[in-house]
Structures are given as structure tokens and as C-alpha cells.
Design a protein that fits this description.
Elements (H helix, E strand, L loop, with lengths): L9 H9 L4 H7 L1 E4 L18 H18 L5 E3 L4 H13 L8 E4 L12 H6 L3 H18 L3 E2 L23 H16 L33 H8 L1 H8 L4 E3 L4 E2 L2 E2 L4 H11 L5 E3 L7 H4 L6 H11 L4 E3 L8 H6 L5 H17 L10 H8 L2 H14 L1 E5 L13 E5 L6 H5 L14 H9 L4 E5 L29 H13 L3 E7 L20 H10 L4 E6 L7 H6 L2 E4 L7 H9 L59 E8 L3 E2 L5 E9 L5 E11 L10 E10 L4 E8 L1 H4 L1 E3 L4 E3 L3 E8 L6 E7 L1
Parallel strand pairs: 1-2, 1-9, 2-3, 3-4, 5-8, 11-12, 11-13, 13-14, 14-15, 17-25
Antiparallel strand pairs: 6-7, 10-15, 16-18, 18-21, 19-20, 19-24, 22-23, 24-25
Helix pairs in contact: 1-14, 2-14, 6-7, 6-15, 6-16, 7-9, 16-22, 18-22
Length: 754
């Protein structure tokens, strides 16, 4: 059995093992089950037959999945997070099957395992790929220590509509920023695919973030130009970074379900992008091909998914891929096509070293999960993600030597679970540092801290399906008296030197199945803020959200506003460090912040179209300008850009120019600045957006000092897909170039491309 010989090339081992498998075993390698069982035995007197059929099926499912594993009819399991259970299940595959093929264990390791880092949209706000790599490498170490080999992350869908809940999992609206960050996630998770790494799975291929009306799971209808120029670049970057797997999407794309779309999964992903890993479906997406009235029946769904280029079916029960052996026997699909998919899955298992190291080290897990370095990294990442949206008259940083009393207001200020954000499953809320705790720790011995939870946050009309998996979810009590709670909050603020008011949405009000029809602050949070403002006490507003909320009134009336996102395990310490000036904020918005929901979708990289000078007056009743532009973020330091230059007067197609600028820190504080380069192409094969981000870097500039920043501009940045030629082009044209601290950068020059 040469597949057992680790000294042989992986390709040789794969072919040897593949030649030994039956058709049924091959189909099994392409099947992934949700496993929701435990090692806790049922009581001796438990009468399963007395339950309704659907409950019996659910309780019996783990047993049936384990039988499938022992029969060689399962290649992967997901949602198992107990290391001992993972090892027990792995032994079934390795020690009780004919070929001993290890299982792949997958999980949604999105922004941490035990250590919870800021949510992905917050990580994007760092504009710091190196930081993101460090974060995801730490998350991978923790997950792998438990026995998880594979994460269903990163989500790299471009999001133009903040009503869509899953924008929190991605990197915002811009294809260049999204591509750079997608590659960083992949590199962080995968490393060298050694024993401390996990496989990354960029998702959802392709266009899922363009769901109609921002409603999760809705269909998507977008042009080829937008598909390729906006939604594809992050996936291209993830593939180039070596992503081992890709997840297909649920929805119909231009009338064809993504999980049965050969043009997407084979022609575009494999043949054009050169992806050589395997494609897994989103949950039940193969079965859904029948639900979507695309496939005739489950066998047809399995055949069409495999033929499209989908390699592994993620399913809850009753996999469609169980019918592939029958389809091969009937001549509906070739065994060669089946072999190609199995080959890709087996290659991943060999690359991970699972045949040599199938089990996790249970004795070492606790030490890895408790790593103090990971907790420190969580705080640093949170500090670097916070965005100072507004700061008038030096309201921030707060001065510890002059403030004697602080009122902290808002239920989110002391919610351990909400501080962590959604899409985590093995967290420990006991070690979460809330904003209230962070402020108390920082002001200890300097000021009195008074806390009032204030206005309640209402429950969702349609409950989150993830809440049943999480006993730590926090809610406003059903008998909460808003009137008296708001009154106490106002009284506390009135007698304080400063009020830190925390507003936003709970963590289960964004994410999957958490789209929303309004961007308003929930319930009476705005009314409460207005009453506190009327007391005359200075206010610092801290916003906890993963999407832009309607901050028109706060922006007009509150002196300082900080976007805190859901900052993670050490989030409260990070917020307090920024509020008091221990950390100089440098996070930048990865999306355009609209004034209200009526403007969406609103993006900075729109086209000029007709009467471009009237862009902000499209609505007759109000301005269409954003509240805060893409790339926006303030600092306690002040920066000046000067001496913008290009290293050549003209650029030939295919060449790369170097754009340089001097960044001067005019203040007496050290600070980071995110230097952003935008272009506009004046003419060419197609019209191009008014501005496009093409390069950026986050640099530290000492007080009173300066830094020269060099940014490249070449064919990779200047090519685009044109509907006029149905291909990628780079034009001879005139480029406008701007460099600055946001998409409103005004220091500009031009460059002729020949």
C-alpha cells in the first residue's frame, strides 16, 4: 500500500489510494455531514420511539453518521468542537474502515476560536494585512489544537448593501481592499499547512453579497462587468494566495444556481483562475438545486453539481451525493469525473499530513487555548480596528487628570456576549472584557464610574437560528421598564463630567439570516441619546455594530463618535485605551457610510454618468452625499501630504510606475496614517469609476516627523474587464491620481499611459 508511504510524492499516493476505492467509497469521500452528537449517553429509560418522527430522526442522526463513517460513506464532518469527540470519530475512520482514510473536520473559524478577535469587517478596518495574517494564524493554532483541520472562512463577498447581514463577515465594498485582505486571511489560516494550520475556504463563489434588496439567500442578477471587476478580484487574490478550498454559494446567479453552475465552478474558477483545490457546497446547497426548481430530483441535483465542478457536498442529512454510484451505473455521470473530485479531496488530506497525524494532542489543547499571547494579539487587533468618526474641539482623548466622574450608558456597554460579535461557537464569555470593564480598569483610582444600562434593545421579529446553539446570548428582560431605565441613565449622565454612551445592535442582529430593512438605532437609543445631550454633559458616542447605522443626529450634535464594531475578547480594554489616548486610533472605514437607508446601495467607486457635477443632488429633497466617505477615519495626530510625484512622465502599457508622497505628522503625537492611492481613467475601451482604490499602506509617523511612502501602479492595478471586448484590457489613456487619507483625497497629479 504505497499510499501509506509518506516519502512518496502526494500525487503517487493519491493515485494508489484512489485505485483501491469502490464507487461507494469514492462518493463517501465527497460527502460532509453536520455532526451534532455528543459523547453523553442517552438515559437508560429514554424512549426514543415515543418521540415524533422528526425528533427521532434528529436524535438518531449522529448514530447514522457514525455508521456512514465506518462504512466509508463519509469523508468529512463539521461542527464538532470537542477534541476528545473529534479523536473518537477519527478513530472510526482510521481504525475501523478498510483503507483508514482520515476524516476532514471543518468548522466556521471566522474571527477566532477560544480567543475572539474583532469581527472580519473590523479587521478590514485596520487596513493592515500583516495584522490580519497574525490574527488568523492564532485562530488556526487554536482550532487545530482541538482537531479542526479546515475553516469555512474567509468570507470575501463584496457588500454594497448594508442591509445585508453578512457584510460583517467580509471586507466591505472595495475590490482592491477586499482582494488584499482576502489573501491575508488565506495566508494566515493556511501558513504552510503544517500541524498548526487549517485549510482556508474563501466564500461564497460568486456574487453572493449582491443579494437582491440586501436580503440573505435572495437571487443575484448582476452584469458580467460588475461580476468580474467588483466581485471576482478577492477570489482571484485568494486563489493566488494558495487557498486549498472554495465554497460555492446558495443563490441563483443570473438565473443559474451557483452550486450547479459549470461556467462559474469550472470555466471561471478552475480554467481561468487556475484554482487546483476542491470546491465544497454551502450547507444543503446541492439538495437545494431541487428546491430551486433547477434539478429534476436529488439524483439530478447530484449529477449536475458534480458536472458543474463541485467536489464535496455539505449536508445536514440525506446527501444527494449518496446517489452518485447509481448515477454512474446509469451512465448519467462518468467515473472519471467522480475520480477527479475524489482526487482533489484526497490531495488535501495528504497535504495536511492527516495520514501521518490523524489525531490531535488532547493534553496540549488547554495550553494553546489559554495562550496569553493570543489575548494580547486580540487587544492589539481591536485597538487597530477602531475608527474615530468624529472628534470636535479635542473632546477625545479623555484626560484622566481632569475627569472625576464618568457615566457609562447602554446595555451593550456591559454585554459580554455582544462584545464578541456573531459567528463564534467555542467562546468563553467569562474572560470577555466589556467596554464598561475596560473603562473601569483604565479610570481606576482616577474617577468614579457610574453605569446605567438604559434603553432596552428589542428582540428580533424572526429569531436567529444560531441562538439555540449559544446559551450565552444576552437579551433585554421581557419586563424591562424603558421609561425608568432611560430616566436613570439621564440622571447619571447629568451628574457626570462626561458620558460614554454605547449604542448599536446586538450580535444576533447582524450576520447570516440577519438582514434588516432599516439602519435606525434600535428602539429608543436615539431618544435616550437626545435626552442625555439635553443635560449639557459632554458625550462620547461609541457605536457597536457591523454595519453603518443612521447617525445623522449624533453627527450633528455629539462631539465625538467612535466606531467600535464587535471588538472581541479584549475589546473593552481596546476601547478604553483609545478613549483615553493610550492608543492613537487609525482604523479606516472599509465602506461608504450612508446618511440613511434610503441611499443604499451607496459606494464611492460609482461611474460619472450624466451630469456628474450634480451627483450629490440626485434626490430633490436632500443631499445624496455619504455621512462618512470610504476610507475615512480620524486621528489624535494631524497629517499633511506633500510632494506627490511619479517616477516617470509617461507609462507604457505593461510597465509599472512608482508613485511617491511625503506624509508629515504636524502634531506632537506619534500616529499611524493609512495612505490611500486612487485613480480615475479619463477615457478608454470602457468608462471607468470616478475613483478606484489601487494601493494603500498603513505607516507609523512619529510626532513632528515625516515618512516617504512609495506605492506601485502597474498593469495589475490598471487592467479591467470590458464589456466592449468581452475581455480584460489595459488602455492607453490619461490617469488622474490622488493620494491621501480617504477616498476624498485632494492631492493629485496625472500620468499618461501610452
Amino acid at each position: 500500500m504505497s499510499y501509506r508511504d509518506h516519502t512518496l510524492p502526494i500525487a503517487h499516493r493519491v493515485e494508489d489510494l484512489l485505485s483501491r476505492l469502490s464507487i461507494e467509497e469514492k462518493a463517501g469521500q465527497l460527502t460532509q455531514y453536520f455532526y451534532t452528537g455528543t459523547d453523553e449517553p442517552l438515559p437508560d429509560d429514554f424512549d426514543i420511539e415515543s418521540l415524533p418522527p422528526e425528533y427521532r430522526e434528529h436524535i438518531d442522526l449522529p448514530r447514522r453518521i457514525e455508521e456512514a463513517v465506518k462504512d466509508g460513506r463519509a469523508g468529512s464532518l463539521l461542527f464538532v468542537r470537542d477534541g476528545r469527540l473529534i479523536n473518537r470519530l477519527q478513530r472510526l475512520a482510521v481504525e475501523e474502515t478498510a483503507h483508514g482514510i482520515p476524516l476532514l473536520f471543518g468548522f466556521d473559524v471566522v474571527h477566532g476560536w477560544r480567543t475572539v478577535f474583532p469581527v472580519p469587517i473590523a479587521l478590514a478596518a485596520t487596513w493592515d494585512p500583516a495584522q490580519i495574517e497574525q490574527v488568523q494564524a492564532a485562530a488556526a493554532r487554536e482550532a487545530r489544537s482541538v482537531g479542526v483541520h479546515w475553516t469555512f472562512a474567509p468570507t470575501i463577498d463584496i457588500a454594497h448593501d448594508p442591509r445585508w447581514g453578512r457584510m460583517i463577515e467580509g471586507s466591505g465594498e472595495d475590490p482592491h481592499l477586499g482582494a488584499t485582505i482576502a489573501a491575508a486571511h488565506v495566508r494566515g489560516f493556511q501558513g504552510d499547512l503544517g500541524p498548526d494550520s487549517v485549510m482556508a475556504t474563501p466564500k461564497h463563489f460568486l456574487g453572493y453579497g449582491a443579494a437582491r434588496g440586501g436580503r440573505d439567500y435572495e437571487d443575484v442578477d448582476i452584469s458580467e462587468s460588475e461580476l468580474r471587476n467588483v466581485y471576482l478580484p478577492p477570489f482571484r487574490a485568494a486563489v493566488e494566495a494558495g487557498a486549498a478550498a472554495v465554497m460555492s454559494a446558495y443563490m441563483d446567479l443570473n438565473g443559474v444556481p451557483a452550486s450547479g453552475n459549470r461556467r462559474l465552478l469550472t470555466e471561471l474558477l478552475r480554467e481561468e483562475l487556475g484554482f487546483d483545490g476542491f470546491v465544497v457546497s454551502d450547507a444543503n446547497a446541492v439538495r437545494s438545486l431541487e428546491t430551486q426548481h433547477f434539478a429534476k430530483d436529488l439524483e439530478d441535483a447530484a449529477v449536475r453539481a458534480l458536472a458543474a465542478g463541485l467536489d464535496m457536498e455539505m449536508c445536514m442529512m440525506g446527501p444527494a451525493f449518496d446517489l452518485l454510484p447509481q448515477a454512474v451505473a446509469e451512465g448519467r455521470v462518468s467515473e472519471d469525473l467522480l475520480d477527479a473530485a475524489v482526487r482533489r479531496v484526497l490531495t488535501a488530506k495528504f497535504r495536511l499530513g492527516l495520514f501521518e497525524r490523524p489525531y490531535s494532542d488532547e493534553a496540549a489543547t488547554a495550553t494553546t487555548l489559554a495562550s496569553p499571547d493570543h489575548r494580547a494579539l486580540a487587544q492589539t487587533a481591536a485597538e487597530r480596528s477602531l475608527v474615530l468618526l468624529k472628534n470636535e474641539a479635542g473632546t477625545l482623548p479623555l484626560q484622566l487628570d481632569t475627569i472625576r466622574s464618568v457615566a457609562v450608558i447602554g446595555q451593550l456597554a456591559d454585554s459580554r456576549r455582544d462584545t464578541l460579535g456573531p459567528w463564534i461557537f467555542d467562546h468563553d464569555t467569562e474572560e470577555t472584557v466589556t467596554i464598561l470593564e475596560g473603562v473601569r480598569n483604565r479610570f481606576a483610582g482616577a474617577a468614579e464610574i457610574v453605569f446605567e444600562p438604559g434603553a432596552g434593545i428589542p428582540e428580533r421579529l424572526h429569531p436567529s437560528p444560531f441562538d439555540v446553539l449559544d446559551p450565552t446570548v444576552e437579551r433585554t428582560p421581557a419586563d424591562w421598564d424603558d421609561e425608568s431605565a432611560i430616566r436613570r441613565a439621564v440622571t447619571a449622565a447629568e451628574s457626570a463630567d462626561v458620558a460614554i454612551v454605547v449604542v448599536g445592535q446586538r450580535q444576533n442582529q447582524i450576520g447570516e439570516k440577519a438582514s434588516v430593512s432599516t439602519l435606525d438605532l434600535p428602539a429608543r437609543q436615539l431618544e435616550q441619546l437626545q435626552q442625555i445631550h439635553a443635560t449639557g454633559t459632554p458625550i462620547v458616542l461609541v457605536v457597536m455594530s457591523g454595519r453603518p447605522l443612521d447617525l445623522r443626529w449624533p453627527d450633528e450634535n455629539v462631539a465625538a463618535i467612535v466606531q467600535a464594531w464587535y471588538p472581541g475578547t479584549r475589546g473593552g480594554e481596546a476601547v478604553a485605551a483609545v478613549l483615553t489616548g493610550d492608543v492613537n486610533p487609525a482604523g479606516r472605514l472599509p465602506f461608504t457610510w450612508p446618511q440613511h437607508v434610503g441611499q443604499v446601495p451607496l459606494v464611492y467607486n460609482h461611474y460619472r454618468t450624466f451630469l456628474p457635477h450634480e451627483r450629490d443632488s440626485r434626490y430633490f429633497n436632500e443631499s445624496n452625499a455619504p455621512l462618512y466617505p470610504f476610507g475615512h477615519g480620524l486621528s489624535y495626530a494631524s497629517f499633511r501630504y506633500e510632494n506627490l510625484r511619479v517616477d516617470r512622465p509617461e507609462l507604457s502599457i505593461g510597465e509599472t510606475a512608482l508613485v511617491s508622497v511625503d506624509v508629515v505628522n504636524e502634531s506632537d503625537r506619534d500616529g499611524d496614517e493609512v495612505v490611500q492611492l486612487y485613480i480615475h481613467q479619463r477615457y478608454g475601451t470602457s468608462s471607468r469609476p470616478v475613483r478606484e482604490l489601487k494601493a494603500f499602506t498603513r505607516v507609523a509617523v512619529p510626532a513632528g516627523g515625516s515618512r516617504t511612502v512609495d506605492l506601485e501602479l502597474g498593469p495589475r492595478q490598471l487592467r479591467y474587464w470590458s464589456a466592449a471586448t468581452n475581455s480584460e484590457v489595459q488602455d492607453a489613456t490619461l490617469l488622474d491620481i490622488w493620494v491621501g487619507g480617504s477616498s476624498r483625497a485632494d492631492l493629485g497629479t496625472t500620468l499618461t499611459v501610452l
